[in-house]
Design goal:
single chain; about 475 residues; mainly alpha; 25 helices; about 0% strand
Amino acid sequence: MDYGLLAILPPVLTIILSITTKDVLLSLLIGIFAGLLIIHAGHPLTAAIALLDNIVKLFAEAWVVKTLIFSLLVGSVMRLLVDSGGVAGLVHFLTQRSQLVKSARSAQLLAFGIGLAIFIESSITSLVAGTVSRPLFDQYGVSRQKLAYICDATSAPVCALFPLNGWGALLLGLLAAQINNGTLHGNAVEILIKSIPYNFYAWLSLLIVFWVIWRDWNIGSMTHYETNTTPIEIPIPADGGHIWHMLVPLTVLVGMIPVALYYTGSGNLDLSPSVLGSTSWLDKLFSGSGTSAVFYAVFTALLVAFVQYVFIGKMTRKQYFDSVFTGAGELLPIVVILILAFLMGNMTKELHTGQYLAALAQGWLSPALIPMLVFSLSAIIAFATGTSWGTFSIMMPIGMALSSATGAEATLVVGAVISGGVFGDHASPISDTTIIASLAAGCDVIEHTHSQLPYALLAAAGSVVLFTVFGILGQS
């Protein structure tokens, strides 16, 4: 069914309400209910029943259940790292023993460096950077909102620039489909690699983050949060803390991701030289499930933490499980937001929101302006729906068809699609990466959205200029 202009009403309403009311839960609920009213011809009772049914159906999706469980258990891991003395030990080591982190700037650079180094899964990038850096930000009086911004701006952008992950698998599949139907010519891997320099939003986002850190450049509401944040002394135990109580579980958490990606990509964990010398293990790594990989990694980290803390006498079994349940409970509000965000994503798919926006813009595309307009449209769709991967699935076929029909540079258009999707993933208040970044930093989702939006819009504006210039040069 064609819903016309009504297709964009629910996400637009949700975004406006989340910004004006600063209540993301209520905003999502109202937006979802508005969408269900549209789908069910304005019958409120039918829409209310459909809302409950859709929540139940959501839990039939394995990836959704795994995402919600690992989100809760990440809270457990974070609480265990604090209660075991691991966080205090890390702060003591970095600030006093090694003096690697001696200022607010070096604390922020540490978070930035972690974000650059971990590109296997966007959620893990934010969670590790936030977990390691949060006590250091507190110690030096840097706001949690700035930490959330650094985590968010180095998650999706980095994963898109170094696509040795689920992002790469999805994009290669979409490009291969376009090659098979004749709208794109060449090798999917080669096209994806050549498009990386044209992922202008991701590059600009990283450059802006570095500039913000190096120059202590605060704009918009970030100025308010930075001005009103005071240093919090992290209490150090008499023995200096236990850095290994943090490093061991975190190392297991991060290290298990590629192993689990390989396994979920139908790998059999055969690491013999003959296997490692072929490309098959890379294929399996690329085709693995990011959600399942994080799910298995978090459980493994909890198991290792149990052995490490309980068996050596740092914690009793009761203390361990008390920390596990307390940490999970602390993240329950975030999980509720994720549930509603997933419902919103499913509803915009049913309303064909992305397809409507794409069709709306196709009628006035100029060949030289195609890259810029594809980026802009992808950014709007991703911001409205909160999903970059969904945007890629909608816009890659459209972008490649436009490129084929007009002669616009294909790799530039691919870069435009990816850039637009990354913007939405980074900036949208209903994006799971936005929610997880605020979770990792320990700040409110709306405060995080407000404070990072000026920086994201600056990177988006720069991307519009660059896609316009390169689009014109490509037609000359």
